[in-house]
Amino acid sequence: MPLVVITAYLIGSVPFAVLLAKRWGAQDLRLVGSGNVGATNVLRAYGVTPGVIVALLDMAKGAVSVILADRLNAAGAAPAAAGVAAVIGHVFPVWLGFRGGKGVATAFGVFSILTPLAALVAFGVFMVSVWITRYVSIGSVLASATLPPVAYGTGTPAPELTAALAIAVLVIVRHRANLARVRDGTERSLGLRETRL
To answer: pLDDT at residue 68 above 70?
Structure first.
């Protein structure tokens, strides 16, 4: 299992947002808009299509990591461990000095394979929350908080449920600054374009 987990971490560490942003005119995405190396910052800085492309690639990182673990390791906990490792890789990528994104899209990719029904419910919560509030951060936090109880309620095995809890906590903690800005009225809402530095 250690090799599977390391591989998943390295897959999760691939900074698609940074790599593709260079093709759209940015020397370093960390110097654009909010400075976050995730799909939301790409969407605000470069538009819907680039943002969606990055989100899909980040989801693919999570899904591929779980599928690869399932194929290469017969241990029951391997796919769940690989999923956690992929999200950690996105949040703390070795290639970017361990300063990465928030992990939401990668987490969705992970749980679309591990717990498809729970992932679908969480995605629905995300979409409705963002539509109502116009804040991606609120949608991300509510979706993350929704995932573990739904996974539990649908009979998800212990390794996958533990992974859901761990990743939910990580994603919520990563959004604590966003939540503080929402409270203070300074968080950028969806549709407000970022300024390129």
So the answer is: yes
| Largest separation between any pair of C-alpha atoms in the chain | 49
What average pLDDT does range 50-67 have in this prediction? 95
pLDDT digits (tens, 9 = 90+) for 12-40: 999 998 888 777 766 677 777 666 788 88
Write down the pTM of the prediction. Answer: 0.91
| Sequence letter at residue 33 | G
| Contact present, 147 and 101 (Cβ < 8 Å) | no
| Tokens found for residue 26 | 């940015």
The residues with which 32 forms a beta bridge, in sequence order, are 196
- The angle, 0 to 180 degrees and rounded to 10, between the axes of the packed helices 158-174 and 104-114 is 170
In terms of C-beta density within 10 A (0-12 exposed, 13-18 middle, 19 or more buried), how is residue 10 classed? middle
